[in-house]
Specification:
This protein has 15 helices and no strands. It is mainly alpha-helical and 398 residues long. Keywords: Coiled coil.
Length: 398
């Protein structure tokens, strides 16, 4: 017997502020209306989506197939979702997708895990306390309540006392945590020995929970016991409220601890990032400096080659000019010795003038060449030499 339908959930989030959000929503078209899982039966007497899903999960072997599909060992969960979707379509429910089915099963598992965790924390061993343990407690409490109440209030007092028993308090709180606990307990409690892996954002799985003190109770898992959520809430005492607050606080602490990132997944600190950025900038600066030095070296080499070629061109030009002057002097009737003496004196004068004007332009090769030239023989007749020099200058200028 499946439990009553769930109450409608809270409305969806309000409209977002800002023109861009409105424009995006307008471009997507009208938002699809959310259809609840417990109120989408195709016919008045037909089954709802949650009813078909719970019927499939409670079928022997189906939930074990679902758990095995997580590891891709046999049937995949996508294939199982398609099988559930086919069952939904057979009942006239055509608006569910495989992703919706997968999400709904995950929500049922989370709710069941939360309920079992609360029962473990309260010392019930992960299951509801048996009804036989509450018989004597309920009878004694009923007798006390009957002694203090009138004859007309006997039934109401007995009903309130039943809700104040340990099982009544636990059952009311479990119903608030997991509405379908009685339906899911026979199938999900059998999988406690097989850990259910969760995504990083999910809660604690059954495999990570402390092991329960006992196994599943067949009597409690029959699914025939139903307690309305409203009745359980009104019948809970202050003790149940205190236990619920303690359990919620403990669950919140555990959830926060699980959400804390480990040292392996924590992002690098700002100091480490700043140091890495500084090293990167220094490496880039050194690379630019080395490149600049290489360019300067290449430029200097080119400048040296250019100067060497310019010097070589000047040297060739001087050689040509000297050869032409020598030819003109020989054509004028001077002897070879006289021509050599005149050209040597002229070369020395030009070298001295060049050294005075540009002392840094005289190369070592030029000095070596001048040093290799033999010194002229002294002339006995100074007047004749001066006359020949003047005549040579006049001939060269002409």
């Amino acid at each position: 017997m499946l439990p009553a339908t769930m109450t409608p959930s809270s409305p969806t989030d309000g409209a977002r502020n800002g023109g861009s959000a409105i424009a995006k929503r307008a471009a997507r078209g009208p938002r699809k209306q959310r259809i609840l899982w417990d109120s989408d039966n195709a016919t008045p007497d037909g089954k709802t989506s949650i009813g078909v899903l719970l019927e499939w999960l409670t079928t022997p072997g189906n939930y074990a197939r679902w758990c095995d599909g997580k590891g891709q060992a046999g049937e995949t969960r996508e294939k199982l979702c398609s099988e559930i979707n086919a069952a939904l379509r057979s009942h006239g429910i055509l608006h569910r997708e495989n992703a919706n089915i997968r999400t709904q099963i995950s929500e049922l598992e989370r709710a069941f895990d939360a309920a079992v965790m609360w029962l473990v924390d309260q010392g019930f061993g992960g299951r509801l306390p048996p009804a036989t343990e509450d018989a004597s407690t309920a009878a004694a409490a009923g007798a006390v309540a009957g002694a203090g109440a009138g004859a007309g209030d006997g039934d109401n007092g007995g009903h309130a006392t039943a809700n104040k028993t340990p099982r009544g308090v636990a059952e009311a709180h479990v119903q608030r945590l997991c509405r379908y606990f009685h339906v899911l307990y026979p199938v999900m409690s059998q999988m406690t020995s097989q850990p259910r892996t969760r995504r990083p954002y999910s809660r604690l799985s059954l495999g990570e929970r402390r092991p329960s003190a006992s196994t599943a109770d067949d009597g409690d898992g029959s699914g025939n016991e139903t307690t309305s959520e409203h009745g359980g809430a009104t019948g809970a005492t202050a003790t149940a409220t205190t236990n619920a607050t303690t359990a919620a606080t403990a669950a919140g602490v555990v959830s926060r601890k699980r959400r804390t990132p480990t040292s392996e997944t924590m992002p690098p600190s700002f100091a480490q990032f700043e140091q890495a950025q500084r090293l990167f900038l220094e490496a880039a600066r050194e690379e630019r400096e080395a490149k600049r030095l290489r360019l300067d070296e290449e430029r200097n080499k080119l400048e040296c080659e250019k100067l060497r070629y310019e010097v070589e061109a000047k040297r060739l030009e001087l050689v040509v000019q000297r050869a032409l002057a020598r030819k003109r002097l020989l054509d004028a009737g001077l002897s070879a010795d006289e021509v050599d003496a005149i050209l040597l004196v002229q070369q020395q004068e030009q070298s001295s003038e060049t050294a005075a004007d540009e002392p840094s332009t005289t190369t070592q090769e030029d000095e070596t060449e001048l040093a290799d030239v033999p010194a002229p023989a002294p002339s006995a007749e100074q007047d004749k030499e001066q006359e020949q020099r003047n005549w040579a200058d006049a001939s060269a200028s002409s």
